[in-house]
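Before relying on records like the one below, remember that each one covers exactly one chain. Contacts with other chains, cofactors or solvent are not represented anywhere in the record.
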Amino acid sequence: MSQFANKIKQYKNNYIWKIVNFFNILGWVAMAASIGMYVSYIPQIGDNLAGHKGNPVQPLVAAINCSLWLVYGFFKNRNVTILYY
């Protein structure tokens, strides 16, 4: 192989590794956001039981969680068939 072909192969391997690493990190961050979404219900329930309106933390965390999983699922694997109803 020529030196140019080796550089191209090395670049492709490095690029693929970065994508795989990005999705691994994104999966862990989204999992932590899922846990945060369910933990953020606790102050919401406490406020409701005390007769106060809830705070906007839980909907914000839920929106971030959904956005992270949407990005993960949409870009992770294109081989999955999407069902439309």
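Helices lie at 3-39, 41-49, 57-76.
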